[in-house]
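[audit] Reproducing an earlier prediction to check determinism. Same input, same settings, fresh worker. If the C-alpha cells differ from the archived copy the diff job will pick it up downstream; this log only records the rerun itself.
[audit] input (284 residues):
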Amino acid sequence: MTTVVKIGGARAVDPEGALADVASLVDDGEDVVLTHGGSTAVDETLEDLGQEPTYVETPGGVVGRFTDEDTMDVFKMVMPGKLNTDLVESLQNEGVNAVGLSGTDGKLLEGKRKSAVRVKEDGKKKIKRGDHSGKIESVNADLLETTLEGGYTPVVSVPMLGKEKSGGYTAVNADADRAAAAIAGALEADLVVLTDVSGIYEDPDDESTRIGSASTPEEFAAVEEAAEGFMTKKVMAATEALEGGASSVVVASANADEPISSALEGEGTTLEPGALADGEEVAQ
C-alpha cells in the first residue's frame, strides 16, 4: 500500500518529524510519495522582491492565490526550486533516496490552464484575467510507480502543466492540497495531510472539539459545516481524493511525534470513502 503525504507550507509547520517518519516507513518497506506546499515561502519571496501577494475570493467563498506572470516566476523559483530541493536534501540525510519531481516532469500533473478566474469583489462577481493557474485533470501514475519500484521516494511539487487552447503547454500554479489529492486518487493510496492543527474542529478555536472520523454522508456533512478558512480547501481536496480512488484521507498535525504513523493509526480527522454521498459533486 502506498501513502501520499502532504506537508503544509505554513510557517508553523515543522517538517522535521514528518521526514524522520518517512524514513521509518521506507525502512519498513512502505512506499511513500511526499508532496508539499509553500505559500508562506512564496509570499515572503514576493515581499522581498517588492511585490505584493494577491489573494481573491471565489463566488463560492473560497479564498485562493491569484497568480499573475510575475508571481508565477517566483512560484517556479521557490516551489520546485528551493523548497523541493531542501526536502530532498533532508530526506537524503535521513537515509532516504529521494527524487525531486515537479508536476511538469514527465507530464506528472496535467490539466487545462485557467487564464481568467471568477472572483467576488465588494459583493460583486467579476472576471479577473491574467491568471496562471489550472485544474489537475490527469496524473502520470506510471512515472510515480516506476520511481517507487526503483527504490526511490518521490518528492512532488507543483507547478503543473497547463494545456493551452493552442495545443501547447504552460507551467501554471495549482493548489498543493488538490495536487496531493489527485496523486492519492491515481495511486489508490492513503492520503495524510499534515498541517499546523491536529485535525478538523467543530469549533475552530477549540482543539478539544476535533472530529475523529467521518464514515457516513451525515458525518461528512458535519465536517464540511465545521471547516472554515484554509480548512475549507483541505476538505475540498479530501473529497476529490476519495472520489478519485484514495483509500482514506487523514488531516493531522505535522508537529506531532511520528506524525504520519500516528495519523494512519487514528490521530487527526480520518475521512473514509463511505462518507461521500453517491453523486456528490466537488465545488470548483
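[audit] rerun output stored. Observation attached for the diff report: The longest strand covers residues 124-139.
[audit] end
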